[in-house]
Amino acid sequence: MKELLMVLDSIKLSQNIKALVITGEGGFFSSGHNLHEVIKFSDTNSKKVFSTASEIMEKLNEFPIPSIASVNGPAVAGGCQLVAACDLAISAKSAIFSASSIKLGLFCSTPGVSLVRAIGLRAANELLLTGKAISADRAYELGLVHRVVEDDKLYEASIEFAKEITQHNKDVVQLGRETLHKQASMPLMDAYAIASDAMVRNLQFSDTKQRIQSFLNRKK
């Protein structure tokens, strides 16, 4: 987890990176916390570990670059949380998703934060209260992932997904994403106020003015 934090810190101010794709190794997207370690932790150490995981999710939420989870295998507990924390998600057909630690007497409370915000309380309950693993197709139905592809097409499809974002002006994407996240938890009128301000700012971008003018010229 600390390695992922370091990566996020190292690239967040990059002018060249326009999208971040997160995937796993060894047939797993992420299996969550190491239970062999967790069972030995003191209360202080446990809090530190869960706080570090939460910090990753908070950083992804505030990250200036859109993130894509490329789910190459099982996403369990904290792994499922990571999928939900990313802006977009694409999954291999064979991948599974679960918050299964409830079966061990440990409710996935921190993964629940990201899951509820990503797919809503009702859908999150299916994972959090039952502990059952769901398929990639079911994750798609719940809105946890946006696309499901054959396993051998995942890498290529993930890159293409990222290109759909990176084709756009980075400053526009960053402003829009930042505004979306800010307004999501606001009362309706406050949300419209900051969204209106964002559109006014967006219209001042020289690239935006040029693109609009070019479009209008083609319509003549």
TrEMBL record:
InterPro entries associated with the record: ClpP/crotonase-like_dom_sf (IPR029045), Enoyl-CoA_hydra/iso (IPR001753), Enoyl-CoA_hydra_C (IPR014748), Mitochondrial_ECH-domain (IPR052377)
Molecular functions (GO terms): hydro-lyase activity
PANTHER family: ENOYL-COA HYDRATASE DOMAIN-CONTAINING PROTEIN 3, MITOCHONDRIAL (PTHR43602:SF1), PTHR43602
Descriptive protein name: Enoyl-CoA hydratase domain-containing protein 3, mitochondrial
One example of a Gene Ontology biological process annotation: fatty acid metabolic process
SUPFAM superfamilies attached to this UniProt entry: ClpP/crotonase
Alphabetic keyword roster: Fatty acid metabolism, Lipid metabolism, Mitochondrion, Transit peptide
Annotated compartments: Mitochondrion
Pfam family, one: ECH_1
Task performed by this protein: May play a role in fatty acid biosynthesis and insulin sensitivity.
The keyword Iron-sulfur is assigned to this record: no
Organism lineage string: Eukaryota, Metazoa, Spiralia, Lophotrochozoa, Platyhelminthes
Coiled coil: none
GO cellular component assignments: mitochondrion
Originating organism: Schistosoma mattheei
